[in-house]
């Protein structure tokens, strides 16, 4: 059931074409930044609500991010191709493959490393969302969603702890992440969970009309001040929806 506004609202949108993202090529890493990160700064693209980072990273085999710290951030990693070897100060040593999703609550502080452990290029999305509270206990989890994905349906992969779905991972924020694969011509409607939320839609592959805007591969649109919006897919597509509080 969708919520209803107490007063009439006009949907607000911000369009982020793929070529407007920040870019960095370090040889071993080819990075694309949807929001200000590292040496890329755009005052209009610091964050979307409580979504702070959406990085689209391409990492060469055997290369990766050495041990580094995080604190007070909910971190979600989604490998699209290849696999990540993860090691952290909580004594986790794991491999996350395409089809899986990883969550890590940095909380009071955690150190970790991430390397491409396959013989092919790793392509991964890394998402940072501000937590509900600072100083929480760090935690780690991952899940294989490949058997749960269904054509032409959104699958809830991340939810808040207080509203965790049967199959989703949870984070310490009122945020919801959905992934979906859609055929040409499919049309669906997405209903937001709460009134003060917005949704950042990132088109991983394909072509779509989302909230009356035309998106192609790696384009994104932020949508708020509405309780629902439509998506129509013009080509076979893969989409990521990140619903977050706007303040």
UniProtKB/TrEMBL annotation:
Record key words, sorted: Iron, Metal-binding
Transmembrane regions: none
Gene Ontology molecular function: any one: metal ion binding
InterPro entries associated with the record: Pirin, Pirin_N_dom, Quercetinase_C, RmlC-like_jellyroll, RmlC_Cupin_sf
Boundaries of every Quercetin 2,3-dioxygenase C-terminal cupin domain copy: 157-244
Residues the record lists as binding Fe cation: 68, 70, 112, 114
Residue intervals of the Pirin N-terminal domain: 20-129
Comment on bound cofactor: Binds 1 Fe cation per subunit.
Keyword presence, Iron: yes
CDD domains: cupin_Yhhw_N (cd02910)
Cofactor(s) required, per the database record: Fe cation
Pfam family, one: Pirin_C_2
Keyword Nucleus: no
Family (UniProt): Belongs to the pirin family.
Name of protein: Pirin family protein
Organism: Christiangramia gaetbulicola
């Amino acid at each position: 059931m969708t919520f209803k506004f107490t007063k009439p609202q006009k949907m607000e949108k911000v369009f982020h074409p793929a070529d407007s993202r920040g870019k960095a090529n370090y040889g071993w890493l080819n990075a694309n930044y949807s929001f200000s990160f590292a040496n890329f700064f755009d005052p209009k693209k610091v964050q979307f609500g409580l979504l702070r980072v959406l990085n689209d990273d391409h990492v060469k085999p055997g290369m990766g991010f050495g041990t580094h710290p995080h604190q007070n951030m909910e971190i979600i990693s989604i490998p699209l191709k290849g696999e990540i070897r993860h090691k952290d100060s909580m004594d986790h040593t794991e491999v996350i493959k395409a089809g899986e999703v990883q969550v890590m609550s940095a909380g009071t502080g955690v150190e970790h490393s991430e390397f491409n452990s396959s013989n092919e290029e790793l392509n991964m999305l890394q998402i940072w969302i501000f937590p509900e509270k600072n100083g929480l206990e760090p935690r780690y989890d991952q899940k294989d969603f490949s058997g749960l994905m269904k054509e032409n349906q959104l699958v809830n992969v991340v939810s808040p702890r207080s509203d965790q779905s049967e199959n989703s991972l949870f984070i310490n924020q009122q945020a919801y992440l959905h992934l979906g694969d859609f055929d040409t011509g499919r049309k669906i409607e997405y209903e937001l969970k709460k009134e003060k939320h917005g949704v950042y839609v990132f088109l991983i592959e394909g072509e779509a009309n989302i909230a009356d805007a035309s998106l192609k591969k790696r384009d994104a649109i932020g949508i708020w001040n509405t309780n629902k919006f439509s998506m129509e897919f013009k080509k076979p597509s893969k989409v990521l929806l990140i619903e977050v509080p706007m303040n």
